[in-house]
């Protein structure tokens, strides 16, 4: 049995590898500068960012239940990490906080805190994806023309270099490097046109872009189009295995009783978990196979990843939308692509750092611009418009809030707007009614909704007490409701007394505190138990018949 399952696993892996392998290269190219930029902005060693990306790819993806999510250092944590390193006074003490945060995430996974991810409205998640797409485009345009003042991967509206998204665009116009601009434009053309040729699709377009960009960069040397060192990728170059081992840093466990370590760890665990759950929900939305990722397992995997990262000298990680969406758009199908991208990051650091440092940031900006456009595709705006204002308004508000603040703040604002529409719809959909005229007046039948909460109390109370005088027969039917709040029942009972006192006929049907809702888990277990008993009985019957023969 074990051999059969193992054989099937490798067969499926081989089948998906032709999709996952090229996708992993794309994710690697996107992740490489992001890991370096986020580490630099966080005040951590450059190697710490790469190490976090390696662990996010190899370790987290191995334990995660998500097929397309990619983990690594997150831009949303840079301010917290920078402040935490300064507050704790030593990078080794900060690493201890990362280890503790990872252990906290393990606990969150065990207690099934991942269920929070199921309560994000779709309009907000889709708005977040489009908002990230807009941010990618706005933030990468300066890099596309060779203005690299902000770190690669910056997402917040207010940048660490005292600029904001729009001032950076304005300043970029006055500092255009035409060599970088040519590389970016040609890269975009290849990314758009290359997949249209079926015979060429065997080679990933981003890989072609990188080779072309490196070639052009070398050709531009000594001319007016030459790129400076600031326009290229910069990863640490190690000359020996011993030097490579020297890049690792280990936590200072003597600070375990430092209360600031625990406060920072809790902050990191909560924010990293929220960003991960948001990313997971978003990736499931764009998964072409519409798979649902297990949120609790993801928190557990993130806990293992952050614990490992802290122990070896890395910075905190989350599941990241930018890398994950690049994975989806590149055609990735399973966790293999995320794991492979981690392996490529490791090999790049150990074996070919000099070659990697020849890659212009402008071509990587082109890859992200292409990804950003797919996330903020105009078609998504059209789809949300046709769904109605209760979906379109939270969608647009989330986009604007994400662009002008940051990811978590923007999603929080979007959630508030979505909640307003949810409450509004809940209040207006508490019941249906039907009026039938009779000889003495009219009869009205109220049919309550499936779920009637205290939020419906005011609407039901107003509807009952505002009935016209000619209504002399009243039926309130709760037989289709799975739940009726006690406050609503009290309102209905009070109205019953009021109606009887006025000489009206009133009938209450199925107005009870709570309906017995079947426990799905227990129901499923009973079915499986009955199936097992039936199989056993059938087997015994067959054996009896055989013996009689």
Strand order, largest beta sheet: 3-4-6-8
Q: What is the CA-based Rg, rounded?
A: 29 Å
Distance between the termini: 33 Å
Number of helices: 21
Largest sheet, in brief, is: 4 strands, mixed
Alpha-beta content class: alpha/beta
Poorly predicted regions: none
The SSE string, one letter per element, is HHEHHHHHHHHHEHHHHHHHEEEHEEHEH
Could you give the count of β-strands?
8
The share of residues in extended strands comes to 5-15%
Please give the share of residues in helix: 55-70%
Anisotropy-based shape: elongated
Mean pLDDT: 90
InterPro entries: SLC26A/SulP_dom, SLC26A/SulP_fam, STAS_dom, STAS_dom_sf
Subcellular location: Membrane
Membrane topology: Multi-pass membrane protein
Transmembrane segments: 21-40, 46-63, 70-88, 94-111, 118-138, 175-195, 202-220, 262-280, 343-372, 392-423
Write structural notes for this entry.
It is a multi-pass membrane protein. This is SulP family inorganic anion transporter. It comes from Parapedobacter deserti. With 549 residues, the protein is α/β, with parallel strands linked by helices. The protein is 63% helix and 7% strand. It has 21 helices and eight strands. It has helices at 2-41, 46-63, 78-88, 91-110, 122-144, 165-173, 178-193, 205-219, 241-245, 259-286, 295-312, 321-329, 336-350, 353-356, 361-375, 378-386, 389-404, 407-428, 457-465, 486-501, 520-548, and strands at 71-73, 317-319, 431-437, 442-448, 451-452, 471-477, 483-484, 505-509. It has a four-stranded mixed β-sheet with strand order 3-4-6-8, with helices on one face. Helix 3 packs antiparallel against helix 10 (259-286), helix 5 (122-144) packs antiparallel against helix 18 (407-428) and helix 19 (457-465) runs parallel beside helix 20 (486-501). The radius of gyration is 29 Å and the shape is elongated. The two termini are 33 Å apart. The model has no long low-confidence stretch (mean pLDDT 90).
């Amino acid at each position: 049995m074990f051999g059969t399952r193992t054989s099937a696993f490798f067969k499926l892996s081989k089948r998906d590898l032709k999709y996952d392998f090229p996708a992993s290269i794309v994710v690697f190219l996107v992740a490489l500068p992001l890991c370096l930029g986020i580490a630099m902005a966080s005040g951590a060693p450059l190697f710490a960012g790469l190490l976090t990306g390696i662990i996010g790819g190899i370790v987290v993806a191995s334990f995660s239940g998500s097929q397309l999510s990619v983990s690594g250092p997150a831009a949303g944590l840079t301010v917290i990490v920078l402040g935490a390193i300064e507050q704790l006074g030593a990078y080794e003490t900060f690493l201890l906080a990362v280890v503790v945060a990872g252990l906290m995430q393990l606990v969150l996974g065990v207690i099934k805190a991942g269920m929070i991810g199921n309560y994000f409205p779709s309009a907000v998640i889709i708005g977040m994806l489009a908002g990230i797409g807009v941010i990618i485009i706005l933030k990468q345009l300066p890099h596309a023309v060779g203005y690299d003042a902000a770190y690669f991967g910056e997402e917040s509206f207010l940048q660490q270099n005292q600029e904001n998204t729009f001032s950076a665009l304005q300043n970029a116009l006055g500092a255009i490097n035409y060599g970088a601009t040519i590389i970016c434009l040609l890269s975009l053309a290849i990314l758009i046109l290359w997949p249209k040729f079926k015979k060429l699709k065997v080679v990933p377009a981003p890989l072609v872009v990188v080779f072309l960009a490196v070639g052009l960069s070398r050709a531009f040397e000594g001319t007016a189009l030459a790129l400076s060192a600031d326009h290229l990728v910069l990863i640490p170059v190690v000359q020996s295995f011993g030097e490579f081992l020297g890049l690792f840093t280990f936590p200072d466990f003597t600070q375990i009783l430092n209360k600031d370590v625990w406060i920072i760890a809790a902050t990191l665990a909560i924010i990293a978990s929220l960003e991960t759950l948001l990313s997971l929900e978003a990736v499931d939305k764009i998964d072409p196979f519409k798979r649902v990722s297990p949120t609790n397992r993801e928190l557990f995997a993130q806990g293992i990843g952050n614990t490992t990262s802290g122990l070896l000298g890395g910075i905190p990680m989350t599941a990241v939308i930018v890398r994950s969406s690049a994975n989806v758009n590149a055609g990735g199908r399973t966790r293999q692509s995320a794991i492979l991208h981690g392996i490529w990051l490791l090999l790049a650091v150990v074996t070919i750092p000099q070659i990697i440092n020849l890659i212009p940031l402008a071509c990587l900006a082109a890859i992200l611009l292409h990804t950003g456009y797919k996330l903020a595709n105009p078609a998504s705006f059209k789809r949300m418009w046709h769904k109605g204002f209760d979906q379109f308004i939270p969608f647009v508000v989330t986009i604007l809030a994400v662009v002008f603040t940051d990811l978590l703040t923007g999603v929080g604002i979007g959630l508030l707007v979505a909640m307003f529409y949810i409450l509004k719809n809940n209040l207006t959909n508490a019941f249906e009614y039907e009026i039938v005229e009779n000889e003495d007046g009219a009869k009205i039948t109220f049919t309550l909704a499936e779920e009637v909460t205290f939020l419906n109390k005011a609407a039901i109370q107003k509807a009952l007490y505002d009935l016209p005088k000619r209504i002399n027969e009243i039926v309130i039917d709760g037989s289709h409701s799975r739940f009726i709040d006690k406050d609503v029942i009290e309102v209905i009972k009070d109205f019953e007394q009021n109606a009887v006192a006025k000489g009206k006929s009133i009938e209450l049907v199925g107005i009870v505190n709570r309906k017995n809702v079947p426990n799905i888990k227990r129901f499923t277990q009973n079915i499986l138990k009955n199936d097992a008993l039936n199989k056993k009985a059938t087997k015994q019957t067959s054996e009896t018949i055989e013996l009689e023969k």
